[in-house]
Amino acid sequence: RGPDNEGYYINKEANFGLGNRRLSIIDSSANADQPLSYLDRYWISFNGCIYNYVELKKKLLDLGYKFTTNTDTEVLLKSFVEWGEECQTLFNGDWAFAIWDQFKQEIFLSRDRFAVKPLYYYFDKNIFAFASEIKSFKYLKAPVEINYDEIIKFSDNIFNKNKTYLKNVNSLGGGCSIKINLKKIIDIKKWW
């Protein structure tokens, strides 16, 4: 979502890719460009800020982790490696992130407690895609159509934030996560 850098991770074997447009705030070095990887197994694309990343980084250093950047992104990624999905409960901040696990061949997406950072996803039986902006879905090689029913309902219920004006495109709710594997088994959880 930012103007400072763009990066991609493409895995042709898994038919999977991550992209990121970076806004450099904490560490503007090229080492901090995204998608950021760890152990050539985990890849992250992250939008947001983890305010308590310094404290979490200290805990991870005490556990033996080494760091190559000064970013909250690297702390977030290594927190996921250490504590799994429970890491979400440790974060103080606002975020939308996706972590690809190359070994498990699955993607994990999370959104902050109050849905400050946007995270939309498209899912049908063949394609799972996600983005921080709805306009990104117009580039899918899938028929994304206007959801007229939701447009009509919108004026009656402006608080239904999970539906969008596009069919099969939803907004991930605040305090929610999604895990999906290549077999298209999707697991949506309310973690907070």
List the topology elements.
Blueprint (H helix, E strand, L loop, with lengths): L4 E7 L4 E7 L13 E3 L3 E9 L2 H10 L9 H12 L3 H4 L2 E9 L4 E6 L8 E4 L4 E4 L16 H7 L14 E3 L4 E6 L4 E5 L2
Antiparallel strand pairs: 1-2, 3-4, 4-5, 5-6, 6-10, 7-8, 7-9, 10-11
Description:
It is globular, with a radius of gyration of 17 Å. The chain has helices at residues 53-62, 72-83, 87-90, 148-154, and strands at 5-11, 16-22, 36-38, 42-50, 93-101, 106-111, 120-123, 128-131, 169-171, 176-181, 186-190. The strands form 3 sheets. A 6-stranded antiparallel β-sheet has the order 3-4-5-6-10-11, with helices on one face. Strands 8-7-9 form a 3-stranded antiparallel β-sheet, with no helix packed on it. It is built from 4 helices and 11 strands, in the order ββββαααββββαβββ. The model has no long low-confidence stretch (mean pLDDT 86). Helix 1 (53-62) packs across helix 2.
The SS-based structural class is alpha+beta
Strand order of the largest sheet: 3-4-5-6-10-11
Helix content: 10-25%
Our estimate of the beta-strand percent is 25-35%
Order of helices and strands: EEEEHHHEEEEHEEE
Number of helices: 4
Indicate the overall shape: globular
